[in-house]
Amino acid sequence: MTVVICRQLAPVMADLAANRELTCAAVGESIDAGAQLVILPELITSGYVFESMDEARSVAITPDHELFADWAALAAKGSAVVIGGFCETGPGGTVYNSAAVVDGSGVLAVYRKLHLWDTEKNFFTPGSAVPPVVETQHGRIGVIICYDLEFPELTRSVALRGADLLAVPTNWPLIYCPEGERAPEVQVGIAAARVNRMSIACCDRVGTERGQEWTGGTTIISESGWVVATADEAGIARADLDLTLARDKVLTPLAHVFGDRRPEFYGALTAKD
């Protein structure tokens, strides 16, 4: 079993030092509690609601920043893996909405968000590489960010590349939800987990930032599509998952999640018009 902990946090807007302290405390506490995978929200090092490109660039960092060395040092103590969102400095003054995968050896992979939501397009450059699927001692971990989850083509492609668990750092803006219903993004995650037989861990944020409220919808979903953990009052979601179950795509003796695909009929999924 692999202990997965998502930490639903509220970053301090445009304060890298404060968010470094916040994330290190959360990672350290989680590893002390037995976490082997620690997942943090989208843009946890910077905040989300930027007012200008200058502000975004002021808190943008590269993967060799000392913050990630801090995460690595904490991860090494528990042989853990940490996945968290950050505002990344790109070439020529560009900025990316990115996520890093870190273990005790350092940064294993960086993913740049492919699908930018709404006003993110005013500040970030979209990524140009497929999401990583990282082989770790705890399993094969895929990474996407927030709005990416809304594109089933992408989650299916990550599953086809062998991910046991899909980590999704996210900032879900609060929207109307009928009483008794889960947030729509959670329902999308449930469906993606179910149809791909792949665990999914969505780590959301909380707080109100420059008038924007957040869902606080952190959810861990099993490979069968069942919600196994949500955030408690302390913002902690914890689940013990057997990630190897995601490698068995057999539903019945005559039904197979991937073997029954008919990709020759799916051309419209990648057509631009």
End-to-end Cα distance: 44 Å
In terms of quaternary structure, what is this?
A: single chain
Helix percentage range: 10-25%
Task: Give the low-pLDDT segments.
Answer: none
Overall radius of gyration: 18 Å
Number of discrete helical segments: 5
Instruction: Work out the number of β strands.
Output: 16
Note the beta-strand portion. 25-35%
Order of helices and strands: EHEHHEEEEEHEHEEEEEEEE
Structural class: alpha/beta
Average pLDDT number: 97
Strand order of the largest sheet: 5-4-3-2-1-14
Q: Mind summarizing the main beta sheet? A: 6 strands, mixed
**Net shape:** globular
Structural write-up:
With 273 residues, the protein is of the alpha/beta class. 21% of the residues lie in helices and 27% in strands. The chain contains 5 helices and 16 strands. It has helices at 16-32, 53-58, 66-78, 152-160, 184-196, and strands at residues 2-7, 37-39, 81-89, 95-103, 106-112, 133-136, 139-143, 165-169, 199-203, 208-209, 212-213, 219-221, 227-230, 236-241, 250-252, 255-256. The strands form 4 sheets. The protein has a 6-stranded mixed β-sheet. Helix 5 (184-196) links the parallel strand 8 (165-169) and strand 9. Helix 1 packs parallel to helix 3 (66-78).
